[in-house]
Amino acid sequence: MVTAMFADLAGSLLKERHEASLPVVQVAHPVGGVSVTEARTRITDAVVRGVASSLTGEGASSSPGTPARDGSAPEEAGRILIEGGEADALEEFHQRGWTDGLPVVLPTEDRVKAALRSVSGNPLDTVGCLLPRNATATLLDVAINAVMAGCRPEFLPVIVAAVEATQEADFNLYGVQTTTHNCGILVIIHGPISRTIGMNSGHNCLGNGNRANATIGRAVRLVLQNVGGATPGELDKATLGSPAKFTYCFAENEEKTPWLPFRTALGFRAEESCVTVVAAEAPHNINDHGSSTAASLLNTIAQTMATVGNNNLYVGGDTYLILGPEHARTIADGGFSREGVQQVLYERARVALARISPEKLAELSSWGGYQNRLEEWKEGIPLVRTPGDIRVIVAGGSGKHSAWCPTFGATRSVTRRIHER
């Protein structure tokens, strides 16, 4: 049973489970934001119609498994022949829905072969099965999309590791790919490889101007769209989306980090190169040019994070704080470790119950661990469920700015080691 807007998603899921003939009962959209009476009426009506349809065999309320979009999967032979010049080929790619709306680099055989030389294994080796389409992604698939994104061959090991990381159960790729939330795939690179391939970890690292940052994030998005099936408006149901869904990638600024590198807190060695994937909103700037003490600065950060509309407050998950180097130094000089920052923000980044409307509070009573905990949280609802869920990393250049990246919430970030050839 789904609201009408998600009928195609239901069909895709049934097809994945080889149950495409099962009926899908469609409820009028939406059921959120309407009265309980109205929601109950809509659901009851849909169930009655669905059962009647199934008994009579009319199928009026059912939705068959959603067929794959034309051209969405690789051709059987692994090659396509397009008559005409490069402009014609690019137009064909746009028409087939293989781009993100921007022009791409044509994945010619020579370009793809050059990319594949940077990784070990057979081109048809499996990287994973990407949801919601549950389609097998091979090294060849990843290489093709990396070339399209404009990547250099040496970027491919990073992209492969990132795609593998999205397969972890905690990441909840199905939910991330199909949600109405606006999350993009934030890709964070750690360790020696970020310097080897020339990534930007300093000024404007979350912005334009660096090929590795721009194209690695774009390549991951194209793989998840072209292989996984998250085509905007079809299986990707983001209400508004975000510019972060084009590309969202940066490197940790380890030279300016006053603590040990982020990956070491997760059990990786400092000499290892790693990639972290996060289903995150675009960064929210934290401006504080006046605070000269850690306590004052942490108060600014906590109050910025304590917002009513973010998903983490309601459904948990982890969330990311990107400290600019100057802010990080002020906090570290105040005697705070990374763990100390997490603890302070867990205690202070809280939302008073009075800031949440009664209707929203009633909805929350069964969400994200809220049930039976509102009495415990009467002094303020925490942004996350544990201090460790506030991930703290340092990046960027000089200046009194940091950024907070709320996440989809029904997800957790995943960090994987990058295997270089």
Describe the structure.
The chain has 421 residues and is α/β, with parallel strands linked by helices. The protein folds into three domains: 2-56, no CATH class; 86-255, no CATH class; 283-405, no CATH class. Helix content is 33%, strand content 14%. It contains 14 helices and 14 strands. The chain has a four-stranded mixed beta sheet with strand order 6-5-7-14. A four-stranded mixed beta sheet has the order 8-13-9-12. A two-stranded parallel ribbon has the order 1-2. β3 and β4 form a beta hairpin. α5 (139-149) crosses α9 (211-226), α10 (294-305) crosses α12 and α10 (294-305) packs across α13. It is flat.
Order of helices and strands: EHEHHHEEHHHEHHEEEHHEHHEHEEEE
**Biggest sheet strand line-up:** 6-5-7-14
**Secondary structure tally, helices:** 14
**How many domains make up the coordinates?**
3
Cα radius of gyration in angstroms = 23 Å
The stretches of 5 or more residues where confidence is low (pLDDT under 50) are: 59-77
- Strand content is 5-15%
Helix and strand content put the structural class at: alpha/beta
Average pLDDT: 88
Query: Helix content range of the residues, please?
Result: 25-40%
Note the main sheet. 4 strands, mixed
Shape: flat
Query: N- to C-terminal separation?
Result: 47 Å
What is the secondary structure topology, with strand pairs?
Blueprint: E1 2-3, H1 7-16, E2 26-27, H2 36-56, H3 86-95, H4 109-116, E3 126-130, E4 135-138, H5 139-149, H6 156-165, H7 173-178, E5 184-190, H8 192-196, H9 211-226, E6 249-251, E7 274-280, E8 284-287, H10 294-305, H11 311-315, E9 319-323, H12 325-333, H13 338-348, E10 350-351, H14 358-364, E11 381-382, E12 390-394, E13 401-405, E14 414-417
Parallel strand pairs: 1-2, 5-6, 9-12
Antiparallel strand pairs: 3-4, 5-7, 7-14, 8-13, 9-13, 10-11
Helix pairs in contact: 4-5, 5-6, 5-9, 6-9, 10-12, 10-13
